Amino acid sequence: MPEQYIQVAIPVPMRQLFTYQVPEPLSHPSIKVGERVAVPFGSRKVIGIVIDAQAPCNFERSKIKSIAGRLNDNFNLSQSLVSFLQLCAHYYHHPVGDVFQQALPILLRKIENITLSPPMVWQAQSPTEDSADMLAKLATKAAKQYALYQIINSRNGISWVELRTLGYSKAQLNALHSKALISEEEQIVSQFTWQEHTLNEADKLVLSSEQAIIVSAINNALSSFSCHLIDGVTGSGKTEVYLQAMEEVLANNKQVLVIVPEIGLTPQTLSRFEQRFNVPIALHHSGLNDKERLATWLSAQQGSAAIVIGTRSAIFTPLHHLGLIIIDEEHDSSLKQQDSFRYHGRDMAILRARQLNIPIVLGSATPSFESLQNALSGKYSYHQLHNRAGKSIKAKIALIDMNQQQVEFGLSGTLKHEIKQTLARGEQVLLFLNRRGYAPAINCQECHWLAQCQRCDKSYTLHQKQQLLICHHCGSQRRIPPQCPHCGSVRIAPLGQGTEQLESRLEDLFPESSIVRIDRDSTRKKGELAKLLQEVTDKKHQLLVGTQMLAKGHHFPDVTLVAVLDVDGALFSFDFRASEQMAQLLIQVAGRAGRASKPGRVLVQSNYVDHPLLQDLVHNGYHHFAHQALSERKQARLPPFTFQALLRADANYPSYPEKFLRALTQHPIENCEFAGPVPAAMEKKAGKFRYHLIIQAKSRKALHHGILQLLAQIPNNEWQGKIRWSLDIDPIDLNW
Ligand code: ADP
Ligand code: ZN
Ligand code: ZN
């Protein structure tokens, strides 16, 4: 028997695979690609994934270690997932072991044996006379419990994870359980057999002709790769198109993967999927614990889940029979992971669809310039939805010139008046301020001393309720000094306004109205966000104050006035993407206004109302603005017309990162240009000094080869150990 060698990916920051020997007692049954094995690495034992089961041995045999064991569980990776993850590592020039590490559920990275309890689902009990009475009572007295019952009753078994994500509580569930209206059963796991009663026809809508054309374009191309961009304003019926395109795929017993920016934030979208399809749905998002994540992974791999809905990393779920991928809000920057393995969920989804030869659908009211350009150039099928579905009318955007106004607490006279009128009509108002905390700075009114984080050289944000100064860049905290450390004066005051302050000012200005603040601070507690959103829908609050968290996909039918308090920051950024992001945000926020039958209004406060970007966006809309901006990008040879990578470096000494990057630019790279090194927008963060180097090329291929050349120079560099560096392919945030 010849000796067997395998190549495995190990979770270490090295861009290579490692060779191990398989000792004879462990070689039956034979090891397969995707299997998880325990291997010695240094003094540790780690989990490795087999990438090549029949590797040649290119080293001195005596130096090669043997694997320590095989896991022999249900959790091996499919060949297809292994190849996909290798493609990802290749695309991003990221250490392959780390890609596997980040793509797998945490429990699969551990050597201990994993035991998962069998999946459980809730079901409605068959109706009796008693239960009919009880339900009638619930309908009037406990609307939420009644709604919970309805959703359980409409489904053929639904998990606690799904119910929780939809915003229901254990207490509500227990209440129904104790009334014997529902019961918990072990889920009958059947593989790939959901076609029989897939659809709840009840709320299926008759498509408009624009919608119908898109659905058939997707359904006519199910057996090969194609990428579809659905470009339609908020409320134009994109979700309905996704739902109807999915029908055919599910009817063919194939699975669908749906990626959304943040599910916890948009339970309404999830509930539409839940209500439409009577098939097992698995969820993947940050609100799951490790076992729940693994359960999703397993149900997708084994084929018991028909639909997987998740946030960006759901793209790494092993779907055995995937037939369609949908990326909702494809422009959303949360699709890009901004640390360590910096991948873009949308781009990797496209790669996966290509690998599997299936269609992918991207949807947005404000497509990213990348996708828009690919659609305009014919690389993607381009579908536009021009009108809002149903009755709602598009909201009008108007600018308020702050230079011409009496301003109190950041609110112009005009805005205050409009808020009053809207509240008087019994409608809701959303005020949008992208700055959490009480004030973005505090200073001394005598000597102008500014409280600054020493580690970042940026001002501390005042959090009044907690009585703390917090650095939003590195998280460090300190108490509010009783007097100025510089001149001793006690006249220390907040500077500028954040959401916390706005909330308390509004309480004074509109004492009759209930105000709710929705930002990262007010929603830290688990379940809090769902609770607040529900209270808004139930009209417990009339005034909503929030950060960009509020801009995403929520459906508030009674919000008819949306105001953006301060857009000016985005108008003067050095990052060429800032204006794209500002425009997307404005249009998305505006999309919150007047979604139901009442017309909506959007007011935008600015000190620079004549700024051409604002003027263009407000008068000509997103598409005009985007076309204009795209032609400027073309002239300036910027993405999406060129391809970029960003090499970031940081160190404890100010001069190191720059010298390190400059040394790299001394060796020209074929078909690539360097820009920089330049100091990062935040030159100092958490005590480190930071520099950027951009590598740019005319084609993706040239960039890829250029990066390989660049990386080859780094390992033996004299800076080893003195600086940290990281590579970001297709960077979208130059501010970092
Ligand atoms: P989007 O995803 O683009 O925001 P949705 O699919 O959520 O749009 O549709 C917005 C609203 O219009 C929803 O209330 C939906 O029920 C309704 N709607 C969508 N398509 C139709 C249609 N063909 N006929 C009637 N109403 C529709
Ligand atoms: Zn002072
Ligand atoms: Zn700091």
Automatic annotation (TrEMBL):
Gene3D superfamilies: P-loop containing nucleotide triphosphate hydrolases, PriA, 3(prime) DNA-binding domain. Its EC number is 5.6.2.4. Zn(2+) 2 binds at residues 453, 456, 471, 474. It comes from the Bacteria. Pfam families: DEAD, Helicase_C, PriA_3primeBD, PriA_C, Zn_ribbon_PriA. Its cofactor is Zn(2+). InterPro entries: DEAD/DEAH_box_helicase_dom, Helicase_ATP-bd, Helicase_C-like, P-loop_NTPase, PriA, PriA_3primeBD, PriA_3primeBD_sf, PriA_C. Residues 219-385 form the Helicase ATP-binding domain. Residues 479-638 form the Helicase C-terminal domain. Zn(2+) 1 binds at residues 444, 447, 484, 487. Keywords: ATP-binding, DNA replication, DNA-binding, Helicase, Hydrolase, Isomerase, Metal-binding, Nucleotide-binding, Primosome, Zinc. Binds 2 zinc ions per subunit. CDD domains: DEXHc_priA, SF2_C_priA. GO terms for cellular component: primosome complex. GO terms for molecular function: 3'-5' DNA helicase activity; ATP binding; DNA binding; hydrolase activity; zinc ion binding. It catalyses: Couples ATP hydrolysis with the unwinding of duplex DNA by translocating in the 3'-5' direction; ATP + H2O = ADP + phosphate + H(+). Signal peptide: none annotated. The keyword GTP-binding does not apply. One of its GO terms (biological process) is DNA replication initiation. Initiates the restart of stalled replication forks, which reloads the replicative helicase on sites other than the origin of replication. Recognizes and binds to abandoned replication forks and remodels them to uncover a helicase loading site. Promotes assembly of the primosome at these replication forks. PANTHER family: PRIMOSOMAL PROTEIN N. HAMAP family: PriA (MF_00983). Belongs to the helicase family. PriA subfamily. Component of the replication restart primosome. This is Replication restart protein PriA. It comes from Colwellia ponticola. The gene is priA.
